[in-house]
Amino acid sequence: MLKSAGCDIVAALALTLLARYVAAGPDPNPLVICSSFVHKLIRKERADLRTEAQAVQALLSQIELARLGPTSNASEIAELTSWLTANQSKAGAHLDAASLCLTNRLSPSAFNGRPTFSILLEYFKRPWGIHRMATSLRDACARAGLPCELVVNVDNPHEAGAWAEVVQQYRGFVVPVFSANVHEARGYNRAAGLARGNYLIIWQDDQLAPSQSSTWLTELLALFHAWPRLAIVGMNTYRLCKDREPTNRFLTTSWNPDPRTGVRWSFVQLVDFAPLAIRASAFSELGGLEEGFSRPGDCGIWGDWELCSRAWLAGWQVGYLYLEGRDGDGHEGGTHTSSNAERCWGRQQHVAASGFGKRFGQGSYQLELCERVRQLNVASFDLARPEDCPYGTEATKFGNCTRY
């Protein structure tokens, strides 16, 4: 018995040591030429060189494809060649080494034809709004001049034909996936898994995009570019300090426009669905929406606040941007119907709120986060008048607008 146990221990140790040499994954590059090259670079240099080297490789392929036809386009080749020259110049003397040693991981966000925004829709039994909703979102993206896609989790597949018509009508814009009443958390996560955009916009199936202006899309893009730690931007309602506010805030924020972007917005503790925009990279890093607090078919109540809380804890930031002109489809929302109201706003709210409280309910954490949000706001924005300060009011019984 002892001999057998000893042999087992030796075998286990041998396998552990061997695993260091045979395991796949994030091990150091085994090539000496690559190891010595990569170790000389700081993280940002590696990221920039990876982007430039992969861009050069892709552009060389695109130029060759343009030359081979079926029809050769001289102006297209000239434009691609100018981009190629610019990227080769950025990479400089490191291009050859980077082309070999930094292509182990691709950057999908740089692929040709990727949309800027992937609009995620959880759809359930609202046939009257299918064409109106898809059209309003497609037109909003077209006015903004931004490539978009609408990824729809169709949660009642018996309406597949209606969605197939929209797919045919707007070729390439609508991307459906057919489920069977998995509902919000699972539906949005499933749609996010199909999305190809750099930014995700969680949309609800009773909403229509503003019909006249698309500045909200260009403003979202400006915010994400100017504030690299900003992960989430809500456009429905918000809280500056959850435990010191009697209800949600909405409409335009009190701060003057952000000097970096010219956009009027605010850092906030929490935002509500929907719309809610989030970096695709952050959504993936955070693990998406929490599915453990609900069962398939349940509404996603509290999922928005739970996602925002995880974002703050992970070092990201959350903001609010007022979306003017958003409209409803003229029908009652599904969670407010008599058959669903108690199930969502009663039972599911009780369960999800309890889960949220167990995870984030510590009073010291809540107040520390409120102060973090306040400091970001007073350091980043100005007020037109002191009395416009949103803090220290009946609406937000916390803090003030004094800069330390």
**What's the domain count?**
2
Estimated radius of gyration: 25 Å
Share of helical residues: 40-55%
CATH homologous superfamily grouping of the largest domain: Spore Coat Polysaccharide Biosynthesis Protein SpsA, Chain A
Low-confidence stretches: 12-24
CATH class of the largest domain: Alpha Beta
What class do helices, strands and sheet pairing give? alpha/beta
Report on the biggest sheet. Answer: 8 strands, mixed
Q: Examine the secondary-structure arrangement and name the CATH architecture of the largest domain.
A: Alpha-Beta Complex
Number of helical stretches of at least 4 residues: 13
Roughly what fraction of the amino acids lie in strands? 5-15%
**N-C termini distance:** 70 Å
How is the CATH topology of the largest domain named? Answer: Spore Coat Polysaccharide Biosynthesis Protein SpsA, Chain A
* Average of the residue pLDDT scores: 89
What coarse outline follows from CA principal-axis ratios?
A: globular
The count of DSSP E runs of length 2 or more, i.e. the number of strands, is 12
**Neighbour order of strands in the largest sheet:** 3-2-1-4-10-6-11-8
| N to C succession of SSEs | HHHHHEHEHEHEEHEEEEEHHEEHH
Give a concise summary.
This is Glycosyltransferase 2-like domain-containing protein. This protein is of the alpha/beta class. Helix content is 46%, strand content 12%.
Keywords:
404 residues, alpha/beta, 2 domains, eight-stranded mixed beta sheet, two-stranded antiparallel sheet, 13 helices, 46% helix, 12% strand, Nucleotide-diphossugar_trans
